[in-house]
Amino acid sequence: MNLILKFFYQVFRLILQLLKPLTHGVRALLIREGQVLLVQHVYEDEWYLPGGLVERGETLEEAIRREALEEVGAEIYDLQLFGVYTKSHRAGMTISRCSSPRILS
Questions:
Q1: Which pairs count as long-range contacts for 90-93, CB under 8 Å and 24+ apart, including other chains?
Q2: What is the mean pLDDT of residues 47-53?
Q3: How confident is the model over 61-65, as a mean pLDDT?
Q4: Is the Cβ–Cβ distance between 42 and 36 less than 8 Å?
Q5: Spatial CA neighbour of 27 closest among 46, 48, 47, 51
Q6: 71 occurs within a structural domain
Q7: How many whole angstroms separate alpha carbon 79 and alpha carbon 65?
Q8: Fewer Cβ atoms within 10 Å of its own Cβ: the N or the C terminal residue of the chain?
Q9: What angle do CA 38, 39, 42 make, to 5 degrees?
Q10: What average pLDDT is seen over the chain?
Q11: In this predicted structure, what is the pLDDT of residue 1?
Q12: Is residue 87 part of a domain?
C-alpha cells in the first residue's frame, strides 16, 4: 500500500511540474520545550515541517492554522512570520514560527 501511495504521489508531482500551476504553500516551525515538531507523510520518506497548500480564498494565517490542526492537532496562538521562500518564479512558501503550540489530544 505504501509503495502505491508513493507511486501516485510521484505521478501527481510530475503532472504538477508539467502543468506548472501557480501554488502557494505554508509551513509551521512549531517549537515546544526546545524541540521542533516534524511530520512524516505516508507518501514520502523524509521528515517535514507541518504544512500544505493554501486553499482558494484562504489567508496565509488561516492556512497555517488549519494545516497545524489537521496534521498534528496543534492550535497556534502566537503566530509570527518567519520567512517567505520560493522554489521557482511560480511557487511560493511561507514559513511561520510558533514557540508554544498547544497540542490537542
A1: 90/20, 90/21, 90/22, 90/23, 91/22, 91/23, 91/24, 91/25, 92/23, 92/24, 92/25, 93/24, 93/25, 93/26, 93/27, 93/51
A2: 87
A3: 91
A4: no
A5: 51
A6: yes
A7: 9
A8: C
A9: 160
A10: 78
A11: 61
A12: yes
C-alpha cell at 87: 522554489
List pLDDT tens digits, range 12-48.
888 877 776 667 888 888 888 888 888 887 777 788 8
Residues 6+ apart with CB under 8 A from 31: 37, 97, 98, 99, 100, 101
- 89: pLDDT strictly greater than 60: no
**pTM score:** 0.64
Q: Which domain holds residue 78?
A: 22-103
Q: Which domain CATH number covers 70? A: 3.90.79.10
**Within a domain: residue 11?**
no
CB-CB contact of 72 with 30 (8 Å): yes
Count of domains forming the chain: 1
Confidence of residue 105 (pLDDT cuts 50, 70, 90): very low
First to last CA, the chain: 27
